[in-house]
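Journal club side-thread
Mid-discussion, someone asked how the predicted structure for our own chain would compare to the paper's figures. Pasting it here so we can look after the session.
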Amino acid sequence: MVWYGQCIPRHAFLLWLVLKNKLKTQDRLAVWEAGSETNLRLMCCPLCNYGRDSRDHLFFQCSFSAKVWNIVKKRTDLRYVSGYWSSIMGWIEQNTSSKALDHIVSKLVLAAATYFIWKERNNRLFSNIRSKEEMVAQYILDTVRLRIMGFKIGRDVNSRKLLEMWEIKEDDPG
């Protein structure tokens, strides 16, 4: 799922960490924290300021991530995948070895979404820089669109539909 020819390596690496639940989220760091109950209560999601900063909350369930996810998944085969980790994992397990163009693009979007949501989380925690959901979604869409532009794509109907969906013009043969 993570490592395939068309992946973006830094996105794939972060997605690999997400799948293994190895990101240094606040809930995992709390195990090492010998601090007080007050410190544990302060550890909330920096994106929505509500839920616990954990993998399951951070990726796609917090209100910020859910909005980003709902914007970007419209251009993929992930349209009908809910924002629950189990639903996302089910799609991953079904399509891990698929070489279909729409599945490759969906994998790119999933990896880019985790990458840019994690980046936004870190920007808010460590740099006090905040972006709106629409801006993060646009980073994801722009990155995936640029990656698709580097593909060698056939001229079949499904390929044309995908290019149209991503607003990519086919090269003129003449």
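Post-session note: Residues 1 and 96 are 4 Å apart (CA to CA).
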